[in-house]
Amino acid sequence: MPELFTFFGLVGHDKIWIYMTHMLLSVGIAILLVKVAMANLQMVPKGTQNVMEAYIAGVLKMGTDVMGHENARRYLPLVATIGLFVGIANLIGVVPGFEAPTAFLEMPLTLALVVFVYYNFEGIRRQGVIKYFKHFLGPVWWLYWLMFPIEIVSHFSRLVSLSFRLFGNVKGDDMFLMVILMLAPWLLPMIPFALLTFMAFLQAFIFMMLTYVYLGGAVAVDEH
């Protein structure tokens, strides 16, 4: 199967070049979108400001359901930024001539590492080292020796869960799009494109939700 055509590929076919250009394009679009939304703030939002406020309210509501309003507001900037970035990066791959940077393992793995390091850092900062790692031991003292390594493996498996779920789904969508465009290069198969657009939003939503869940579990150890 030939490589998926990209406009940036006309300059160079190197994997790093394709990845970096599309990632920077995603960053640029995200920054531009935020700049436009904040350019002329109004009490009654409209246009881009209305869309962004609805997005922020939705992310906050999702976080409130997971970890309460106060904690959701505290971590809203991180989760909303990740969601916006991942969503745009996923959507880029739906546009013919572009490739989603999330279809390269480097980006999902980097985002997963950021979330992994940050939620553990927050757990230690909010609970203290001893109290935070104590919940790794489980409720029964004579099973401490078994539960601790299981919990450690479970936490590190979240890196795989976050990164490979996003990477695998987006990469599969790109391959599906490649097949569709090979079979119908002069037509716009609207149903597959609508499905890929929905999957792009869904994967961003799942990444945000898991980030909130991991943060909630780290800062609310007493509730376990």
Descriptive account of the structure:
- This protein has helices at residues 15-39, 48-67, 69-92, 106-127, 129-134, 144-183, 190-219.
- By secondary structure, it is mainly α.
- The longest helix is centred in the C-terminal third of the chain and has 40 residues, at 144-183.
- The termini are far apart.
- The relative contact order is 0.14.
- The mean pLDDT is 87.
The profile of the biggest β sheet is: none
Radius of gyration: 20 Å
Mean pLDDT: 87
The DSSP helix count reads 7
User: Helix content range of the residues, please?
Assistant: over 70%
What is the number of strand segments? 0
Task: Give the DSSP E fraction (strand runs of 2 or more residues).
Answer: under 5%
Structure, briefly:
The chain is mainly alpha-helical and 224 residues long.
